[in-house]
Amino acid sequence: MIGDNLLAYAFMAGGLACFALFSWYPLIRGIMLSFQQVNFVTDPYWVGTENYVALFEDPLFWTAWRNTLVFSGIALVFGYLVPLFLAILMNELRHLKGFFRVAVYLPVMLPPIVVVLLWRYFYDPGNGLFNTVLSAVGLPTSQWTQSSGTALFSLVLVSTWANLGGATLMYLAGLQSIPGELYEAAELDGASVWQRLRHVTIPQLRFLMLVLLLLQVIATMQVFIEPYQLTGTTNPDTITVMVLIYRYAFTVNNDFGLAAAMSVTLFVVLAAFSAVYLRLTRSQES
Amino acid sequence: MRTLISETEIRRHRALYLAVLGAVTIAFTLAFLFPVYWMVTGALKSPVELAQPTPTLIPERFRPESYADAWNRMDIARYFGNTVFYAFGGWLFVLVLDVAVAYALSKLRPVLGNVILGGMLASLMLPASALLIPAYLTVADVPLLGVNLLNTPWALWLPAVANAFNIYVLKRFFDQIPNDLLDAAAIDGAGRLRVLWSVVLPLSRPVLGVVSIFAIIGIWKDFLWPLLVLPEPAAQTLSVALSRLSLTSQVPLNMMLAGLVIASIPMIVIFLIFQRSIIGGLSAGAMKG
Fold it and tell me: Mind telling me which InterPro entries this protein's record contains (chain A) (predicted)?
C-alpha cells in the first residue's frame, strides 16, 4: 500500500512541481505582492494598502477598466450573435459543409500576431485595403485604429474575426445534437420556420449559449495583443486592463506591486464569472 | 439528419436555397479566405507595387524572393527554429508529465489524490493573465532553486505542463479503461510502468492526439507570456520577433508579409491534416468545459 502511494507520487512529482510553481504558488504570491513594494534592490517589504490607494487614484485605472468593459460589451454583441447566426446558417446548408467549417476556423489557427499585423495593414488610413474599398464604392473612409472614436471598435472587429470560428463550431455541434423529431413535431403543429427557430432551436441551445457567454466574457476581458500591437501601450483611448498591467510592470513604472494589485482587481471580477461557469458545467455533467 | 428546415421545404424553394448557398459561399470566401490570400500574394509583390494607391488583385510580377529574404535577412530562420524547438519540447513535457499525473490519479489512486485533482481543477478558475506578474517573478528567480529561467526554453516548457484541462481529459479517458485489463497484464508480470506503456497508452491514442495537437498549437500561438519571459532577441519566438520587428525597425512590407505567412504555415498544415481531431476536440471541450 505504502509502496503504491510512493509510486503514485513518483509518477506525479514532475506535474505537481509545475502546478506548484506556476499555478498554486503564484496565486498566493500575487495577492501578497499587491500589498508589497518590490524594487529589486532590497527584499520586497509590506506597504499595506498603498498599492491599491495609488491604483485607485490613477486615472488610468478607471480608463483601463472602462475601455475593457466597452471592448467586452461590443465584442459580446458581435462575438455572441454572429457565431450563432453563422452556425444556424451552416447547419441548414446541404452542400459544401466541409468548406464552411474549414473557412470559419482558419483565422482561429493563425497566430494572433499574424492576424493583428495583417489587419494593421488593412486598416492603414493611407492606402489600406479597407479605405480603398470604401472610397471605391463611394463611402466615407475612416481613420480606423487611429481615431479615438473608432479605435476600440476597430480592435473588436479584428478580435472577433480572429476568434469567432471557435464559438461557431461549438454552436454547430450543439445544433447537430438537437433531435430531429422536435422539429418534425413542431412542423406538424403548423409552426413556421421562425417559430421553430424561436421555440425549438434557441431553447435547446440555451445551456451552450450561457456557457459561451461566460467564456466570451472571460476571454475578452483579458484582451491584450490587439491594443498592444495596433495602438500601443500609452494610448488612453484603447488602454485595457491587461495593457495597464503590462505597462505598470514592464515599461514606465517597473512597479510589480502596482501591477499585482491591478491583476487582483481583474482576478476578482473574472473569478466570479469562472465560478458560475464551473458550476454550470459541473451540474450539467452529473 | 432533420434540421430546422426540412428537405421538402428546401426542394420546394430550390432557387432560394441555391441563392443563399451562393451568397454564403461568397461571403465566407471574402471574409475568411481572402485575407489569407491577400497576405500570401502581398508578400509576392514588390514594395513599389504594395505602395500603389490602387491595390492589385494578382501580383504584376511574382517575386518569391521576399520569402527567401525574410527567411535570411530578417532572421526568420532562427525564430522559426526557436519556435519549433519550444513547441516540440513543450509537447514532450506535457505528454510525459501530464500522462503520468493522470495515470497515477486514475489507476494508482494515491491518498489525497482527489484533493490534488481538486487543486488542479481549481486552477482552471484562475485566468492565466491574473497570474502573469507572480509567474514572471517565479521564472526570473525560481523558489528554492534560485535559478533564472528567463530566455531559456524552460520558461515555456514548465508552465505548459501546469494545464488542468489536459490532466482532466486524460484522466477521464483512463478512467474508462477497464481495470480488469490492467489486472490481467499485472498477473502476467507487468509492472505499473509496463502496464501504462503497453496497455493504457496504445488504447489512448485518440486522446493523446488531441492533447498533443492542442499543446503544440498553444505554444505556437502564445504571445504575451513569451513576450515577457524571452526579452533576449536571439531567444524569441517567431510571434514575439515579428511584433518587435514591426514596432521598431524599417522592415519592407513585402518581407514582413512573407514573415507572417511563414509563421502561419505550420498552423495551417496542422489544421488541414488534423481538422477532424481539432474540431472534435473543440466540440468535446464545449460540452465538458
Answer: ABC_transporter_permease (IPR051393), MetI-like (IPR000515), MetI-like_sf (IPR035906)
Contact yes or no for B203/B182 (Cβ under 8 A):
no
Question: What secondary structure does DSSP assign to A103-130, as a single string?
Answer: HHHHHHHS-HHHHHHHHHHHH-TTT-HH
Question: What single letter denotes the amino acid at residue A283?
Answer: S
* Helix segments in chain B, DSSP class H: 7-12, 14-28, 34-42, 47-51, 65-73, 76-93, 99-103, 113-122, 132-140, 154-161, 164-175, 179-187, 192-195, 201-203, 205-221, 224-229, 238-248, 253-288
Given an 8 Å threshold on Cβ–Cβ distance, is B53 in contact with A187? no
Residues 6+ apart with CB under 8 A from A29: B134, B137, B138
- Alpha carbons A22 and B135: distance in angstroms, whole number: 6
- Do the Cβ atoms of B123 and A183 come within 8 Å? no
Q: What are phi and psi of A36, to 5 degrees?
A: -125, 160
Q: Does B9 touch chain A (CB under 8 A)?
A: yes
pLDDT-derived band at A56 (thresholds 50, 70, 90) equals: very high
Residue A158 is predicted with a pLDDT of: 96
**Backbone angles phi and psi of A38, in degrees to 5:** -120, 120
What is residue B176's predicted lDDT score, i.e. its pLDDT?
A: 92
* Amino acid letter, A52: Y
The percentage of residues in chain A with a pLDDT greater than 90, rounded to a whole number, is 67
In chain A, residues with a C-beta closer than 8 Å to the C-beta of B225 are none
Probe site for chain B from A18, A133, A225 (most B CB atoms < 10 A): A18
- Nearest chain A Cα distance for residue B189, angstroms: 16
Q: Is B224 on the interface with A (CB under 8 A)?
A: yes
B282 shares contact with chain A (CB less than 8 Å): yes
Closest residue on chain B to A256 (Cα): B133
Give contacts of A121 with chain B, Cβ < 8 Å.
42, 253, 257
